[in-house]
Structures are given as structure tokens and as C-alpha cells.
Design goal:
2 copies of one chain form a homodimer. By secondary structure, chain A is α+β, with helices and mostly antiparallel strands. Chain A has helices at residues 4-8, 12-20, 23-34, 39-46, 50-62, 84-87, 90-104, 151-167; strands at residues 66-70, 78-82, 112-116, 128-129, 135-136, 141-145.
Chain lengths: 169, 169
């Protein structure tokens, strides 16, 4: 698998996937949201090999998603905390969780609920919303080139626009 | 990497990650939302080896996220379309895209905009919202066991609850 090819697409989604589209990265993030901060908490929570965990934690630190803080001066032990950039992955975590709740949970019901700390009521379903507050399904949205779209992406857009036109939609 | 270990966690997020936490799976889904339906459209869009693409498309069909339709009777060629389950990955796609837009795009600006088909205005930022409409940050939320939480998960919850109490938060 060539990771470079994703970047060639010049697409923010591909960039995120290139960085985080790995099961361990996503599960380490989940455990960070659940409250894990120490190496051994992550290790016990995920039942993951030490070298794999070290590697992924370093990658998350390099990506600016987690930061490490020494537990005591002069000791090579750290705790791992989300940065603001990491905190902004909260909506991503919720979409992964809610889709699994809806489509992959068994008759026993959902294992975990995310609730509002104040009211203890479950949070709302994650949906795509228009500027004027309408819930948008995929067919209610359009994809348009942004200012950073390169020539390759513009060609892709033209292709799909033409395809839609031929399909009469 | 043992995929089984994710499932042991009995967590909807882990189940989603186990199914979709692979760069190709996520990028094939992206291209499906962009309009790709044929094998060759996916292949050109992703610059991916045919065997890898075949494998991932079959996995998405088995998972009920895409369905395949024969192009003509009696011919072994198919197009791939999102099912309702696949359509509900739209919010996941948006969170991946928006996080990348915000943290991983260059000075040239975002490559792609998702807009409301009616007004052509960009969609809102994906955020976690309480039942009464407040924007929740991670620290405004709590994680609670649901009806499907098993004994292991209950122990994990007790551990983190105790940890928060000791930290005085």
C-alpha cells in the first residue's frame, strides 16, 4: 500500500485518513477520551504490544494530537494528553461510536453511552446540517472544488459533474 | 496486530474501527460519496492495485455498506452503490474531511467544499450537541455504561471514575 498516493489526491479527508486511518491510532484516541493517560493504562486498555503502542503514541505526539508530559523531573516516564487539535477529534469519535451503536451492536444494547455532563442525557445524533439548520443527507449535498483544488482534482470534478448530467440527476 | 482484541472490548467504536479502520476502506467510501460506482472509477480515483480494490469492495459489500448491481444481465460486471447503512457514514466522512481541512491543509486553502445542494452554502461544522442544543466539548461530556456493557467494561468504568475522583475532577 502506497501511502503517498493518498496525498496526491490533495484531499483533506485523505490527509486525515493517512494520519489516523489505522485501528490502533483510533483506539488509542478513544482510550484517551475515556481517560487513559499513562502508557500502562493504554496498554491494559488495548491489550497491545508495547512496541506498537510506543510507535503509535509517538506518531500521535508528532502529529500534534497528543502531547507528552514528564511524570517527574529527571525520570523518563510520561503521560499523554490531548492537545486542542486532539480534542477536536471528539466529533470523529462520536461518529465512529454512533454508527457502530446503530449498525453493529447486538440485542444486548449499546455498551457505552456518551451523555451531557450536566443533564446526563445522551448527546444528539451526529448529522450533517446546512447553514440554515436542515439535516442533510448525502443526496442533499454537493461537492465543489475549494481554493486549494489542484488541476487533478478539477479534472475529477468535471468528470463526475458530467457523469451526473448524463445520468440526468 | 490481533483484530480480535478490539472486539473483546465490546465497544461500538471498536467495532466500527475493526470494520472500517483501514485507509482503503475509508477512501473507497469517500469516492463512493464523490460519485464513483464502477470498478475502474474507484481504481483510477485511488490508484490502487486491482486485487486490493477487489478485496475491499467485497468487504464493504459483505458489511452491508455497499451493494453491487450487475451492469447487464449475464455479464460479470458490477457497479457499487451505498446502502442506507453506507449513506449513514456521511457524518463520519464529514468529520474526517473537516478535521483535515482545519489542521492539515496548506496555505492554498481547502481542496474540497461540501455544500448544501439548495443554497450552495458550506455545511456547518460537525460538533457534538447536547439534547438541549449546546455544543459539547469533551470535558462537557461523560461516558457511561449502556445496557450492553459487560463485566470487563464495567470494571474499566469503575477504574476511570475512581481515577477522576482522585484527580479531583
Amino acid at each position: 500500500m502506497s501511502r503517498t498516493s493518498f496525498k496526491e489526491h490533495n484531499c483533506s479527508l485523505a490527509r486525515t485518513v493517512d494520519l489516523l486511518g489505522d485501528p490502533w491510532m483510533l483506539l488509542i484516541l478513544r482510550d484517551s477520551f475515556y481517560g487513559s493517560t499513562t502508557f500502562s493504562e493504554f496498554q491494559k486498555g488495548l491489550n497491545v504490544a508495547r512496541n506498537v503502542l510506543s510507535d503509535r503514541l509517538e506518531r500521535l505526539v508528532t502529529a500534534g494530537v497528543l502531547e507528552k508530559r514528564p511524570t517527574r523531573p529527571g525520570v523518563e516516564r510520561y503521560t499523554y494528553h490531548r492537545t486542542p487539535r486532539g480534542d477536536e477529534l471528539f466529533p470523529l469519535m462520536m461518529t465512529l461510536l454512533q454508527w457502530g451503536d446503530r449498525w453493529l451492536s447486538g440485542p444486548e444494547g449499546v455498551p457505552v453511552k456518551i451523555v451531557d455532563a450536566e443533564s446526563r442525557a445522551p448527546v444528539q445524533e451526529m448529522v450533517v446540517i446546512s447553514r440554515d439548520g436542515r439535516h442533510l443527507r448525502p443526496e442533499d449535498s454537493r461537492i465543489e472544488p475549494g481554493p486549494g483544488a489542484g488541476p487533478h482534482l478539477l479534472k475529477v470534478f468535471a468528470y463526475f459533474k458530467n457523469k451526473r448530467r448524463e445520468a440526468g440527476s
